[in-house]
Every structure is written in C-alpha cells, then in structure tokens.
Q: What sequence folds into this?
C-alpha cells in the first residue's frame, strides 16, 4: 500500500516538472506566432500542471491510514481530487472552444515559425514518454489519479500531433485549419474530463462492486458446502477498493464456534481479492421456507 502511494506521488512530481517545461515553451511560441492551436495546447499544459498538483495532494491525503474519525482510511480523496481535475478540464475546454470559434470567424493571421514545429516535436516526445511511464504505474497500482494523468498524457500526444499538422498547413496559407484543430483539441479535453468526472462521481456516490468481482465472491461462497443460502451481498467503495457485506445462512444446529470459524475463513478469502478492502460476514440460522 505504501509503495502504491509513493509511486503515485513520484508520478505526480514528474508530471508537474514536465508540464511546467512544456507550458513555458508552448505559451512563448504560441502567443508570439498567434497560433490558436498552440495557445490551446499551452492552456492544456496549464491544466495538466493543475492535474498533476491535484494528483500529488490527493494521493498524500489518500495515503493517510484509518483513524477514529475515518475508520476505513482516506482513500476517497483520490476520487475527490480526480473530480477537481475533471471539472477544471471541462471549464478550460469550454473557454478554449469559444476562443477558437471566434478566431475561426474573425480570421486568424498566423506568423509561421519553425519554433512552432520544434516545440510540437518536443511536446510529443515528452508526453509520449510520460504516457508510457504513467500507464505502466497505473496498470500496476490501479489508481484513478494515475489514470487521469495517463489520459492527459495520451491526449496531449494526439492533440499536439494535430497542432503540428495545422502549423505545417499554414505554409500553404491554410490558416483556418488552425482554429479547427483548436476546437477539436478543446472538445477532446472536455470529453475526457466528463469521463473522469462520471467515474469519480460513481465512487463518491457508493457505486456497487463490479459484476466480475461479485461473481468471484459468489464462487468463493459456493465453495463452502456449509452455506445453505446467501441472503444478502452489498458493497461500498473506500478509495480504489470496496468493503463487502455478506449475510449467509447455515445449519441452525451448527455451533457458534463453527459458524464463526466459517465466517472468519470466508472473510479472509474475500479480503484477499485485489479490490476488496475488507469483508464483513454475518451468519444466520437457515430456515426452510414453507411452500405457499
């Protein structure tokens, strides 16, 4: 668990450093050349800095263990801060869409510069490297904050590729495509932000555990022949994991010791699953239902 939070913190710091570097060069060259796509790209980098900062803060809070006021830890901080990232992405993208549309209709005289091309290539290489690194960490630790940053890095590779295309087209006097790319970039950012927002919202609203994990839990229960009936199975998220509540029925003649031993064994097996934080099993005597 400590390693998971440490890696997330390190990834956030690397993201902040990389994005500050890209923001400076993009904004400098973008405003100097009046390129809407590069300006949009620089604003996107500013959003990425905010996202990386939220990753760092959210991860720090989420890593705090349980206490008297927060018995199951602070894991939901991951989703609260990922929601902040999503909201910022949505608002920034809407503003950029408006600016790009205005530039499209009013006309935008771009001052071509090979610096624009160089900055685009540097951005693609930097972001591709960050994407590969963050994706590897996300696959290993399954952290929504890492997922949000991974999505950002991947999007930036695609976004800057289109920025590069629009810049090269200005050599042929095709300036309108720059605004179109600016609109496309902004729409992509908005879509990604909405996706992260929905995922975070679902967890904060206590969405149930996924069906695959639920089926695995049911298979574990069915392995115990003493279990006569599964009365209830429910769950609530705590960070990236879930607390699972079970009510099962066993033979009423089973001793208290035997039934508790069975429950303890079942709890241990279920808690061993990757995305289960804790399993709580309640045992009741089995009552044969009368035919109506």
A:
């Amino acid at each position: 668990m400590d390693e998971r939070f440490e890696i997330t913190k390190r990834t956030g710091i690397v993201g902040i450093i990389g994005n500050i570097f890209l923001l400076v060069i993009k904004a400098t060259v973008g405003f100097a050349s009046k390129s809407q796509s590069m300006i949009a790209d620089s604003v996107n980098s500013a959003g990425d800095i905010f996202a990386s900062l939220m990753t760092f803060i959210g991860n720090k809070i989420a890593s705090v263990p349980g206490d008297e006021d927060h018995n199951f830890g602070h894991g939901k901080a991951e989703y609260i801060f990922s929601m902040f990232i999503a909201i910022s992405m949505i608002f920034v993208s809407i503003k950029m869409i408006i600016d790009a549309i205005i530039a499209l209709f009013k006309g935008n005289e771009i001052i071509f510069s090979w610096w624009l091309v160089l900055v685009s290539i540097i951005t693609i290489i930097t972001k591709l490297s960050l994407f590969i690194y963050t994706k590897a960490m996300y696959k290993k630790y399954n952290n929504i904050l890492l997922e949000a940053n991974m999505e950002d890095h991947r999007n930036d590779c695609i976004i800057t590729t289109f920025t590069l295309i629009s810049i090269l087209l200005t050599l042929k006097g095709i300036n309108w495509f720059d605004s179109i790319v600016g609109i496309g970039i902004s729409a992509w950012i908005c879509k990604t932000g909405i996706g992260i927002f929905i995922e975070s919202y679902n967890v904060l609203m206590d969405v149930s555990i996924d069906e695959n994990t639920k089926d695995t839990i049911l298979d574990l229960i069915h392995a115990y022949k003493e279990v006569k009936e599964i009365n209830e199975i429910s769950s609530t998220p705590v960070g990236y994991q879930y607390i699972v509540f079970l009510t099962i029925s066993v033979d009423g003649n089973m001793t208290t010791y035997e039934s508790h031993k069975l429950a303890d064994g079942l709890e241990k097996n279920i808690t061993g699953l990757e995305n289960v934080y804790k399993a709580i099993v309640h045992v009741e005597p089995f009552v044969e239902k009368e035919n109506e």
Residues 211-285 form a domain with the Alpha-Beta Plaits fold (CATH 3.30.70.1350). The longest helix spans residues 2-33.
